[in-house]
Amino acid sequence: MLNYDNLSQQDPELYKIISEEKERQENEIEMIASENYVSKPVLEAMGTILTNKYSEGYPKKRYYGGNQIIDRVEELAKDRAKKLFEAEHVNVQPLSGSPANAAVYFAFLNPGDKVLGLKLDHGGHLSHGHPVNFSGMLYNFVQHEVNVETGKIDMDEVREIAHKEKPKMIVAGYSAYSREIDWQEFKKIADEVGAYTFADIAHTAGLIAGKQMNNPVPLFDVVSTTTHKTLRGPRGAMIMCKEKYAKDIDKAVFPGMQGGPHDHINAAKAVAFGEALNPEFSKYARQVIINAKTLVQKLKSLEYKIISGGTDNHLMVVDMNSKNVTGKDAEQTLEKAGISVNRSTIPNDPNPPMKPSGIRLGTQALASRGMKEKEIELIAKYIDEAITNIGKEEKLDGIRGEVKNLCQKFPIPSA
Ligand code: DSN
């Protein structure tokens, strides 16, 4: 860990809690598809004095003095992001994924406008129109589903709904969908009905930056992403768009949605984008996908049902009905065995979201630790042993010990 001498002396109570979390991260397997480990340089940038500054506005157009150096931080983050994703314009100020998406809707839509997106229980995101979310409350979302048989997005259905509903915007890019997305076809459909194209690549940004998945940025009107998932940067987000929408997006983020940017986080974004521009990052992105495919294969051989039958990215949704276990029980059992996953709905889930039928697994954090196929096979075995021994505390403790031994051979990058 970085040097926390001052923190440990002044606030031993909090320092102890953080140390325990560090130990947990070091000794447990992280398979939540939206998490990762940042590098030490990213962590260092987040802990800098840049947090002391207020800088409402944009480089050279701030509402506060003393921003001549902060401007350079933000410009660096923007330039690197543009290069990484071939973007015409980038706004690096969004604080997180949902506010970034809110800013996109603010920029392109009026309340009540129609948007087409994927249903949450089919792999979509809350901010893609769920009724309990601001997106579903403010805008008129119509939603498509994945095909019942294949578990994949059915572009014929998307086209049919788009032609019938004539949405003003089509959103693609998901939180629990394991397949490549046909950005070209989405763009074609949007052009047919005169809709804006919006891609939310929060989950796959690192795999796109690492050149292992297709990039919607040159094609779509606007693209949002978080920076902390496969992209391995600090907690935060950004929006990329065509130059012609730059002003609208910037206005929607500030003053539309947010106050002052978090300059220490923008500095850490710059560091992470720099890391992602390094050719080594492609090797990581490639290994993430190899690991995910290996995990699918192994789990299938152990008779787990994988939604859509496989994966093209870092994640998969496992239908735990194939083992007569709920997603909640699977999540809690795996937690006891030292493996973090999250419960997940499956398409047309008969069970409620707090007790859904599936779990979602991701392999990006494992790849960041340097784990490869051999370790993934072992982890699949631990998962299966844990699920087979639900309720047997001693057995789960034993697996936890084996997990810890494995983890100690692969230190986390941020430690
Ligand atoms: N919480 C993120 C995820 O787990 O996918 C999305 O908001």
Molecular structure report:
- The chain is an alpha/beta fold and 415 residues long.
- It folds into 2 domains: 44-276, Aspartate Aminotransferase, domain 2 (3-Layer(aba) Sandwich), CATH 3.40.640; 287-408, Aspartate Aminotransferase, domain 1 (Alpha-Beta Complex), CATH 3.90.1150.10.
- The chain is built from 16 helices and 15 strands.
- The protein has helices at residues 5-10, 12-27, 40-46, 68-85, 97-108, 134-138, 155-165, 183-193, 205-209, 246-257, 263-277, 279-301, 327-336, 364-368, 373-388, 393-408, and strands spanning 29-30, 57-58, 61-62, 89-91, 114-118, 140-144, 169-172, 196-200, 222-226, 237-241, 305-306, 315-319, 339-340, 342-344, 358-362.
- The protein is globular, with a radius of gyration of 21 Å.
- The termini are close together.
- The model has no long low-confidence stretch (mean pLDDT 97).
- The chain binds D-serine.
- D-serine binds next to loops.
- D-serine (DSN) is lined by residues 34, 97, 125, 175.
CATH class membership of the largest domain: Alpha Beta
Q: So, the CATH homologous superfamily of the largest domain? A: Type I PLP-dependent aspartate aminotransferase-like (Major domain)
Largest sheet, in brief, is: 7 strands, mixed
Portion in beta strands: 5-15%
Q: Which molecules other than protein and nucleic acid are bound?
A: D-serine
- What is the overall pLDDT average? 97
Would you identify the CATH architecture of the largest domain?
3-Layer(aba) Sandwich
Instruction: Please give the oligomerization state of what you see.
Output: single chain
Helix content: 40-55%
Shape: globular
Uncertain runs are none
The total count of strands amounts to 15
Round the Cα radius of gyration to an integer and report it.
Answer: 21 Å
Q: Which class best fits the helix and strand makeup?
A: alpha/beta
What strand order characterises the main sheet?
A: 4-10-9-8-7-5-6
| CATH topological fold name of the largest domain | Aspartate Aminotransferase, domain 2
Distance between the termini: 4 Å
> How many distinct domains?
2
How many helices in DSSP terms? 16
